[in-house]
Amino acid sequence: MTNHESNVVGPDVMLIALAASIPNAAVLGGFLKGFNDTSKLNNLIDSMRASSPTRTRSSSSSSLANNNNNASDNQDNINSWMVYHPSALNMFDQIVYNMKGKKIVTFLDYDGTLSPIVADPDKAFMTKKMRATLKDIARHFPTAIVTGRCRDKVYSFVKLAELYYAGSHGMDIKGPTKSRNPNKGNDKAVLCQPASKFLPMIEEVYKILLEKTKSVPGAKVENNKFCLSVHFRCVDEKCWAALAEQVRLVLNEYPKLKLTQGRKVLEIRPTIKWDKGKALEFLLESLGYENSNDVFPIYIGDDRTDEDAFKVLRNRGQGIGILVSRVPKDTEASYTLKDPVEVEQFLRRLVEWKRSSNQ
Question: Which terminus of the chain has a lower count of CB atoms within 10 Å, N or C?
């Protein structure tokens, strides 16, 4: 399955990304000198290309023929992948059968899951329909949003006080003051910030990157409090090299920070053993379900950072992970949904099932 360690991108990988955007074979060879693991190298380059902007296709007859063949091959790959990662909507009856009599907890990524991926991250708004469904879900089940975004930022998008919010990839967690579990018998707000000591460093690097990336049109640096996001969705492919070099040079001076890659974004995080999987475990413990055999967590996400949570669920042998994706990907998730529209449909069916079952 997914090799999570390979998602961590160090300075050498930035050179690979830089080289990948340079077509000259001789130059590429110079950048790649010293790398012996060809398979690992190819995976890294493919990963960078996979998150790149869509390329313009040629309209020549030979290109059209190739595109038709590729489309057929791609559909075969999708069909094969779907055998092992079926649609959560198509398998809904089986899913609810498996969770009957169990306490359901829902965990949701934000961008690409509750809201569509957009060019401007400040405009990643949910639909009114999604917000209404999310509010209904939270009425029936403890619900958390686990995101790479700043917790305050995602709260400004969602505006539902009854949810748990885990921002900065789970490094900034806060929940409702009133306990959802009557057995805990307290009204203290859930709060977890394991990377607090890194705040001054994160702020310092943020200011540096803002200045350094000014020369790269379309680049956007987002301060998520306990981590930083360098968005290259709107960066011309010809400028990737310049952006990669700027980020690499800055991070060379900060060995306590690491770089991971998401969907058309480079994520800068503290080098602590904390991720979305750890956040999921912390929230389950906070709800009183740490050692429970009758809890059924559902985690829905679209990014490779969500794989840590999918893996936790698979290792626990409890609940399900649902990957939001239209294309085959290596994943620890058991099921798939294509986009936020299907996510809303799945959550709505979950609400309707809960109401009709009177559990």
Answer: N
